[in-house]
Amino acid sequence: MASYHASSDREHKHWFMASMQNTRKAVLPVHTQAERDLFRSLMETEPSFSPRSGGPCWNDAVIKWNEYAEKTDGVYYKLVEHLKVYSSKWNSLLHVKEALSLTSNARQPLTKLIHDPSRSSNVPPVLPTIPHPLRVELGQLEGGTVTRDSTRPLDTANLNHAMASRYFPDSTLLRAPSVALEMRRSVVEPETHQAQIGQTTRRRRTCRKCALPDCKGKRAVVDCRNKCQDCGEFQCRGRNSRKLHLTCREGWD
Length: 253
Description:
The protein is mainly alpha-helical.
């Protein structure tokens, strides 16, 4: 790869990228039609791209490619990775073309059936005229039962009353939710008051050994340092928590 010279290389396409890479031409993946044509030509004629045995010799192939890039417009410098990536893509497309070629005879009848012009005969015909809205021509009522005169003056009083009744409902309808709300409050408030009374009159927890509310033994009897309320001994384990109505001696028997 030749180095970048601002005086002569600023006219090339992608010159800014080339200046950042310090190369005469930018180092880019295969992306132009000229590069694709060159790759196909090298795969057919260049031994480094398609040797008789084994895979391509990419180190020699990239040197050969960059030599063509020096003198060919639309062809840019490449790295080995660029050629490897495009080679895998090129091989995939080659396999697709090969599969299409091998199945050409089997696909021809189906292709003719799909593109058969006679298939258009099954398409519904286009309507000759644009459809119009339906109109009643017969069966209309006659006489004074139906008034078709649109110039008759409107009864503004009845109209205003109807509009008012529609947008401003009767006050009795508005009072109905408030009555239901008051009835609900009358039911809920006593229950809430009773619950508050039950919470305030709750009995304080005491130690089951000494029966004192401020004793640490109300959490665990081993923390109690007082005498037993029944036997008067310090080493007593107190009453049974499941039989608090019995004494310390009766509850553990």
